[in-house]
Amino acid sequence: MSIAGLVTALLVGVAAGLLGKLIIPGRREAPAWLTVSVGVVAALAGTIVARLAGIDTSTLNLLALIIQVGLAGSSVVLVVATAGLDPSDPR
């Protein structure tokens, strides 16, 4: 993984974490540090998935960016939507 791929994953993860926190209405139980860290980890995982799929991640690649954004966005939405839910609550 190159420096460019690492920096891109970091920026995508932070952006996805903050946007996911702001966009999901009504669910504010997830702290910002959690959504940002989940976004960064998922974007790094997206870089690994893109690399395993044979996509060049040494430069800025649109397909790799789409994979990073998709994985980070869906992970952040999942975390924000389930944050604060009590498993013993029968709602």
UniProtKB/TrEMBL annotation:
Source superkingdom: Bacteria
Keyword line: Membrane, Transmembrane, Transmembrane helix
Keyword Membrane among record annotations: yes
Bilayer-spanning residue ranges: 30-50, 62-85
Protein's UniProt name: Membrane protein YeaQ/YmgE (Transglycosylase-associated protein family)
